[in-house]
Write a structure and sequence with these properties.
Layout lengths: L2 E4 L2 E4 L2 E5 L6 H85 L3 H29 L3 H11 L3 H4 L18 E3 L19 E2 L9 E17 L7 E10 L6 E2 L1 E2 L2 E2 L2 E2 L8 E22 L3 E7 L2
Antiparallel strand pairs: 1-2, 2-3, 4-6, 5-13, 6-12, 6-13, 7-8, 7-11, 7-12, 9-10
Amino acid sequence: MDAHYKNDHIYVGDDEITSRRHDLPPQRKRSNFKEVSNTTSTQNSESTAIIKMNGKLRIVFSVTVVFFIVSLAVFGVLAYWISKLNIQNIEQKDQQSTKLKLIKELKNETKVSDGNLVNMMNEQKDQQSTKLKLINELKNETRVSDGNLINMMNDLIKKLPCRYPEICYVGISTGLVKLSQLSASSVHEDCPLHQAILNSGRAWCAAKYAINPWIQVDYLVARTITAILTQGRADLAQWVKSFQISYGNTTSEMQYYQELGKVKVFVGNSDESTIVENDLSPSIHARFVRIHPVSYHNHRSMRIEMRDC
C-alpha cells in the first residue's frame, strides 16, 4: 500500500501512521498541566500563609504599641507622685531646718535660758496660729475660691495691723533684731540687755546711779517706726512711768521727737506687766532709735518693742 501525507499526517491507505509535528505526547501535556496546577496551589498556600503571618505581626505590633503607651502613662503618673512626695519631704525638711536654725540663733545671739527660749518659741507659734486662723475665718465667712482669696488677702494686709498689731513688730521680741543691735548707756548686773524684749522673764535695768540713761536699737538701715511699746520688769515692781525718744541716722546727730515744737514726753507704764503702746504721729524714719526714761517707779527698768506699720 502506498504511503501518503495529508495535513502533516502520514497515512498508509486509510490508516494514520504518525504525525509530522513534534508535539509532546498527550500524556506529557497532561503531566505539565498537573505540575502547573500544583505550583499554583503551592503559591496560593504560601500567599495565604504570608497574609496570615502579616496579620499576626500587625496584631503583635499593635499590642506592643498599646502596651508601650500605657507603660509611658503609668510611668508618668508614678514620676509625678514621686516628685510631689519629694517636694513635700524637702519642704518639711526646710521647715525643720529653719526652726532649728532659729533656735540656734536665738540661743547664741540672745543668750537666753532654755526655759525663756521655749516661751519665745511659743509666742512665735501663737503669732503664726493667729495668721492661719484669720485666713481660715476669712475663707469660711466669705466662701471664696483660693484664687479670689489671694486677691482678698492682698487687700486685707493693710487692715491686719488693726486687728493683730503684733504682726507689725519690728523683731526685738522675736529675735529678728539681734542682740548686737541693742545697746544702752548702762546695764545693771541683775538685768542683762537681752532681757529687754517684751514678755521676757525680767527687763533691761539701768545702772543704779546712772545719769540720763537710755536704751537704743540699731536697725542697720533707716526704717519707718510708727509706735513704741513698753512694759515693766517682770520679777519686781519696777517700771518707767514716762520717757522721751530720740532718733537719727548717726549717733552723733540724734534729735528728740517733738510735738508742737516741744520735746514730747510719752506716758509709760503703771505696773510691771501691762504693755503700753504709744503711736508716733507723724512716724519717724531713722536707723537709730533711743528711749530715755524720765520718771520711774522704784527703778528705771523696762522691756521694749516697736512697730513699723
